[in-house]
Amino acid sequence: MQTHYKVLILGGGTGGIAVAARLSRKLAPQSLGIVDPAQTHFYQPLWTLSGAGVISKDHSARPLSKMIPSGVHWVQESVSSIRPLEKRVILKNQTVLTYDYLIVALGLRLAWEKVPGAQEALGKNGVCTIYDYDQVDKTSDFLHQFKGGTAIFTMPPVPIKCAGAPQKIMYLADEIFRKNRVRDKSQIYFATAGQAIFGIPTFAQALNQVAKRKDIQLWFQHQLVRVDAENQQATFAITDPQGNISEKNIRFDLLHVVPPMTAPQVISQSELAEPGGSQKDWLAVDQFTLQHKRFPEVFGLGDVTGIPNSKTGAAIRKQAPVVVSNLLAQMEGRPLSARYDGYSSCPLVTQVGRVILAEFGYDGKLLPSFPVNPAKERWSMWILKRYLLPPMYWWAMMKGRA
Q1: What pTM value is reported for the model?
Q2: Which residue segments constitute the domains of the chain, with CATH numbers given?
Q3: pLDDT value at residue 194
Q4: Residues tagged active-site
């Protein structure tokens, strides 16, 4: 097996494949390597629609072997440790890979252990999630079989990937309950650890109106900390306006759980991690150039990065060309001129056929792609979300063309 690469890419998800596709047209493909043990590549934005029974989850999956650009080496193994001072990556099977340049796109980790009882409860007694491919169909089953009662949808502290998904599945659940004529005997609650329904005020105002229209109760500063599936009881840590924290047990008939999320341990335990501050343990890259703050031959993109943006696939679409441009500039001794402005996009599905397309950058700056009111629910944005973005992902973004 080849053990040295001009450019070694860690992660075969959205970020890793996107940069590999672009680099394979700029450099000799055989000089590039991608490390990832997975057999399947997922387009995760479809899981929300799949969890509501709108589309089969099978449409979100492709063999990873078919995603790797032609000529690029695929190392099918997990990363055990990264030693940037030595420019070495140690694999789980103890193989040592060396590199001239490193791109880190390892995503994040679902930290189920931070909510005792939650992972064990999945698929039982109304406990479900759309953040696990294997649980998506069960979520759809629970929503369509719901007979009424208390339905709680949780949102953990940020950062998480696709921060809009926890409420998107809730809005679709409301629609399912109405179609099945059980909404009048159901109570829907959105229990979020945050202080607002959404981090950008323009969209928070619109979503507050959506929740009001749908008679959804909003519980702010409610963080799920335990799940007792047998007794269908969820425990929340509630922070009052004075900052005092108390716990409350709430019975549920349906509980949609979104787990807390952390940086992968291989990053948090390495010299590549942010040493402190709000982004502690995440990959320490410059928020504009995406170059590592201490190791100039290292770049990063996607959910693993410790930058103040929203973790979405749309963000990666804007980050990939910046990483490639600045990596090539670094190789050639030129200034790193490409800049990432923090762009992210969240198509907020409020019902089948209606979407608010939230697009924004650093410091909450609105970055709309269309000359219309971005906070309005639109059929056109549903068409974009449901029918246009998936093929754009597979045939443009993952091919390095968009």
Answers
A1: 0.96
A2: 4-108+264-342+394-399 (3.50.50.60), 111-261 (3.50.50.60)
A3: 97
A4: 162, 346
